[in-house]
Amino acid sequence: MHIVLTLVVGLICLWALGVGVLCWMGWRRKALLAMAKRIAKWHAGFLLLLALLLVDMRPCVTTPLMSTAEKVDLRQSLDRERDGNLNRISFSGGEIAGSLRSAANLLRIEFHSEVVFPMQDHFQCRFALGHPLGYLNGELDGSARVEDGRLTTTWDRFWIGRIPLVGFVRTMSQRLFCYILDQDKVTSKAMGAVRSAEIRDHRVYLQVVRDKKMIGEISVLLKSNEMVEDSALAVSIVEAWIDSLANPMSEPPQGDRFVEGTRFMFAESQRRAPSRSAMRQNRAAILAAAIWMGHTKFLLVTGRTLDPKTYDRLVESSDRVQVHGRNDLVRHFWVSAAITALASSRTSNFIGISKEEMDSGEGGSGFSFADLLADRAGVLFAELALGSKAQATAMQKRIARDWVASDAIAPIDGFPEGIRQSDFLETYGGVDGPLYRQWSETIDRRNAASRLLQKGR
């Protein structure tokens, strides 16, 4: 990253030096105002020329979003290629382009690409990045290979808009790209998990080590100091809760585990970190609840571990938490809430819908509108618990009062479940179909009526 800053500072200094010399010349000739106008015209002309060279009104390539069937096929192919701690994964150019398009859409970025692998270790890529003025189009051809976490790449051709980057400029851009990958802590950790990546038979083949410790280290690097502190608080809350369950007689009744567990997480967060804001207290409580009632993989997010005995007790007790007689609804609720707390509600909703689409494929449990209700309920819960200081404080008071599990996860009577992929596409029209939208609106109405999820109460 230092080399990037050095280049940027260097260019700014050269520009400032050039403008300074011209202003000095204008001052010596007693025509400073005229020189300033001339400099402004030069800058305007340069920016206009740059816009004409870089900006297009249409993208050079268009990439459709991944369909339900494509997502299911990709997920199933990834599952088939697991080999112990080593994932053997392969992608076609179309799969990479579709995945990038869907990921960019999640971030509200319009990004299109076309990726082709014409020969051994070689790639060709065309891309179009949408922006308010139009599209920034580009083309990149070259070779690439990864061995033991180290990327080796050569760029043979690189265009941005109508400007070709040639010779020294292209070489420097390539070296700068590799330097950033190598120096960035998160990227270098992720690259370290890649044992090999090579292009052949018009696909890219990767061997990736499934290392839980590395995932935890990357997760910590991605977080701010506040997030690290809140994650540590969440784990300590989980440990305290598991200790409170050591005596079976102290466990709450079956129907109350969801309520009592939630109430404990929020109360303990406030007790252990009284000086933190209500929003940070709630975030730690949500993450703690997600570790216990959602999925133990959220421990990876914290970068911390539990001793084996505590971990086993955590898994055993979480399986007995039910709402409407089901454990899966509880998990959907808290996983969605935690993703919202750690990322955003848009990310959480996207993941929830994608998960149900995946389930509609062969070997899955089928698309479930009941699960989708729990997903969205978790998102709403997190939005209210973290939206503002007033909302966060109100949620703490609401949780401390009497309530029941159905106040958080609305009744699911009559909701279609177990929908296979073909039926989901033909009958419901996929995630954009009219019947899907009808059930989606029903979910929103039921969640809006849930006592714990209503604003201003």
Architecture overview:
The protein is an alpha+beta fold and 457 residues long. It folds into three domains: 2-55; 68-210, no CATH class; 214-453, no CATH class. Helix content is 58%, strand content 15%. It contains 18 helices and ten strands. Strands 1, 2, 3, 4, 5, 6, 7, 8, 9 and 10 form a ten-stranded antiparallel sheet that branches. Strand 5 and strand 6 (134-147) form a beta hairpin. It is globular, with a radius of gyration of 27 Å. The mean pLDDT is 82.
Question: What's this entry about, in short?
Answer:
This protein is of the alpha+beta class and 457 residues long. It is 58% helix and 15% strand. The mean pLDDT is 82.
User: Which structural class fits the helix and strand makeup?
Assistant: alpha+beta
Number of helices: 18
Global morphology: globular
Number of discrete domains: 3
**Average pLDDT over all residues:** 82
Strand proportion, as a percent range, falls in 5-15%
Index terms:
457 residues; alpha+beta; ten-stranded antiparallel sheet; 18 helices; globular
Topology of helices and strands:
Elements: H1 2-28, H2 32-54, E1 55-56, H3 68-80, E2 82-83, E3 86-92, H4 93-106, E4 111-116, E5 122-131, E6 134-147, E7 150-160, E8 163-164, H5 167-183, H6 185-192, E9 194-200, E10 203-209, H7 212-222, H8 225-244, H9 257-272, H10 278-294, H11 298-302, H12 308-318, H13 328-342, H14 345-359, H15 369-386, H16 389-400, H17 421-426, H18 434-449
Antiparallel strand pairs: 1-6, 2-3, 3-10, 4-5, 5-6, 6-7, 6-9, 7-8, 9-10
Helix pairs in contact: 1-2, 3-14, 6-7, 8-9, 8-10, 8-12, 9-10, 10-13, 13-14, 13-15, 14-15, 15-18
